[in-house]
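fold-stage: in
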Amino acid sequence: MCALFDPPEPRRVSPGEYPVWDQALALLNRDLAVTLPQLEPLQLLALPSHDADEPENVYVAMANGEWHGNCLDPNSQDSLASALASVANAAQDTVMELLWQAWPLCPEHGLGMHPREDAQEQLSWWCAGERLLRGPAHIHTAVGALDALGESIRTRS
């Protein structure tokens, strides 16, 4: 039985329901598997909107259903680049808040990286590490490509 003011239960989003977000999440889960191999893949969870005329709210959650942060921007489904930016930010919020650690870490500086569009308009993990030494920040690698870095990325986690 559900009381009048009980919050709605989140539901796991089925594969293919939001195909562009599925693609973006698959890229993020590649990075998660390389940097935090003990974790199960992230998933999409949905909750009904408070307004019946609005679309449901979709979140990036841990495998156990916990999440933190804002829902994905419904307009980010227009392109993979936009979806990847929205999903990367949401995934990072969830992982960092629930694990209480920066993610992902730059293997050179041990600092948390952030998603940022590079000169080729590709979403990449960006590190501010050299700024500590008054040098430039640097693009580390494309979001979803941390597996190309090999063992060095795993030794920091």
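fold-stage: in (second)
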Amino acid sequence: MPRLVLTVIGDDRAGLVNALADVVTAHDGNWEDSQLAELAGKFAGIVVVGVPAGRVDELTGALHELDGLLEVTTHPGAEVDSVPDDSGSQRLTLDLLGNDSPGIVREVSSVLSRHELSIETMTTGTREAPMAGGLLFEAHVVVRVPAASDTGALRADLEKLATELLVDIAVA
């Protein structure tokens, strides 16, 4: 069954997920996976749906009927059978917390890229620093690490970066 990756964005209000789910279901689609959030007054997300091959174009067209409520863009996704086998890899979780400053995501992603690691999920945010004032930046990152990777070198690079940025980075 073909899979579509939908990117969605619209002004945040009640009923957006329901409207999208109604269109997917009406075209025999199966909501498989999603990441959805309210960000700066906007509702945004990514949704993976499986849809019968004969209904892909019909579903894609029907999603345009949500214009004005949600902007939906469709992208072809990999079919379940063609997803690479990553059984030899492991996952590492990085949790970062420190004073907010520009460039933190760039610096962390640069280290991960140098080690040829793929980010599976990343959640970031800022919050008020309770005692010191200002903003704290926090990130939760899950990366896929191939079996041949040198996790010791990765940890050393992340520790060095944490010192440079004056943040705490925990690797589990």
